[in-house]
Amino acid sequence: MKKRTLLSWSSGKDSAWTLHILQNNQKIELTGLFSVVNEKYERASMHATRMAMLDRQSEAAGLPIRTIALPDKCTDEECDNVMAQFVKQCEAESINCIAFGDLFLEDIRQYREKQLQGTTITPLFPLWKIPTRDLADRMLSENIEAYISSVDLAKLPLSFAGRKWSRELLKEIPAGYDPCGENGEFHTIVTGGPMFNHTIPVRVGEIVERSGFAYADVIPVNEY
User: Fold this and answer.
1) Pairing between β-strand 43-44 and β-strand 28-38 as defined by DSSP bridges
2) Which residues contact 13 (CB under 8 A, 6 or more apart)?
């Protein structure tokens, strides 16, 4: 029997490529996406993705999406409790697996595994340990379209915010930083690719600086 699987949806290119891999796995039945959102800003955490954009991505993927709201100033304990309730709900829905788009950060993987430890749900990591330079090249070769939605200003300049993730941009990333942004250098919002049934038209709005990060507002064209 196929494994009923939910995908952790960051809204960025890595989770989108994970979706593409799962779509082509005959042993997987994708049941939907879920995203963690900041309750105060009503945007996906770290990526600063509008709720409207999450809905458009869900539509393009042909899968339902659910959101998990966390307070802006959320303690580890509060976060763990909210996620534990979500996992319990997934078990009740007979979800077999939850997939994540993590690449190589061991502490993040261990945290995911700990969240599911002692449950009937298996964590999946389809991109794990793929060399990120090779992964970036493959994604771009398959016409992934994504925009830089947040930048860690301690690692990259403000000018990266709002730009399309491309081979040209990768040439500008300083040596020692990851082309997929796995160390938090940047985050993206995906707008097109083989995992979607159509490309989402967007415009880049205001770019703001806050707490050492630059955030670019990637807006579906019919949203204001």
Assistant:
1) antiparallel
2) 139, 144, 146, 165, 180, 188, 190, 193
Q: What is the pLDDT of residues 73-101, one digit of tens each?
A: 778 888 888 899 999 999 999 999 999 99
For 164, the token pair is 């399309």
Virtual torsion, Cα 43, 101, 75, 50, nearest 10 deg = 0
User: Percent helix, strand and coil across the chain, each rounded to 5?
Assistant: 30, 30, 40
Structural contact between residues 84 and 115, judged by C-beta atoms closer than 8 angstroms: yes
Pairing mode of beta strands 122-124, 97-99? parallel
Rg of the chain (C-alpha set): 17
CB burial class (10 A; 0-12, 13-18, 19+) of residue 110?
A: exposed
Categorize the per-residue pLDDT at 222 as very low, low, confident or very high, splitting at 50, 70 and 90: confident
Which letter does DSSP use for residue 163 in this model?
P
What are the structural domains of the chain? 3-124 (3.40.50.620), 132-220 (no CATH)
Please list, in sequence order, all residues whose beta carbon lies within 8 angstroms of the beta carbon of residue 88, skipping any fewer than 6 positions away. none
Task: Quote the tokens at residue 84.
Answer: 């534990």
Name the DSSP letter for residue 199.
Answer: P
Tens digit of each residue's pLDDT (9 = 90 or more) over 28-44:
999 999 999 988 888 99
In the chain, count H helices and then E strands: 6, 11
For residues 223 and 215, the answer to whether their CB atoms sit within 8 Å is no
In one letter, which amino acid is 44?
A
- Tracing tokens 């995911």 back to the chain, one arrives at 112
- The whole-angstrom distance between residue 101's C-alpha and the CA centroid of its chain comes to 7
With a threshold of 0.90, does the pTM exceed it? yes
